[in-house]
Design a protein that fits this description.
- The protein is α+β, with helices and mostly antiparallel strands.
- About 30% of the residues lie in helices and about 30% in strands.
- It has five helices and seven strands; from the N terminus they run E-E-E-E-H-H-H-E-H-E-H-E.
- The chain is globular, with a radius of gyration of 15 Å.
Amino acid sequence: MIRVGHGYDLHRLEPPPPAGAGQAFVLGGVRLDHERGPVGHSDGDALLHAITDAILGALGEPDIGQLFPDNDPRWKGAASEVFLAEAMRRMRTGGWELGNLDATVICERPKLAPHKSAIAARIANLLGVEPSVVNLKGKTHEGVDAVGEGRAIEVHAVVLLKRANG
C-alpha cells in the first residue's frame, strides 16, 4: 500500500532588522548567505515546512499550522527540524516509511544550484534515508510576482509513503 502527500509553503523575504523582519535564510536545514530572509513565526524554513506538510498530508494528519500554530509562543523562532521530526515520528508510528521525496524550491535568489547537494544531503539525514530518495529542484518565477521580484520564496514538495517492512 502506498500514500502520496503534497506540501506547499510560501514566506515573504525581507532584509534583517532594523530594515525589515527577515531572519537568517535557512533552507532545508542549511543556512545560506543572503541579504534577505524569511519572515515567519518559526525559523521560516519553507522547504522543511513543505516537506513536513507533505508527510502529514500523506498520513491524513493535521497540517503544520494546526500542530504548531503561529500564535503559540513555544514555536517562536523554533527550528523547523522539530516539526519534521514530529511528522516522521507520526509516520513511523503509523507503520509507514518514505519511498521518495520530490521538492521544488522557487525563488530568484539565492541561486539554489551551488547549494543543492548540501541541502539534499541534510534533508536525507533528517529523514533518515539514502540521498537517492531525495530529489531537489530549483526554479525561478522569471521576474513575475512577489517570488519573481525576490520578495518571497515558494516551495512544493511531494512524498510517497509505503508500508514499512516487517
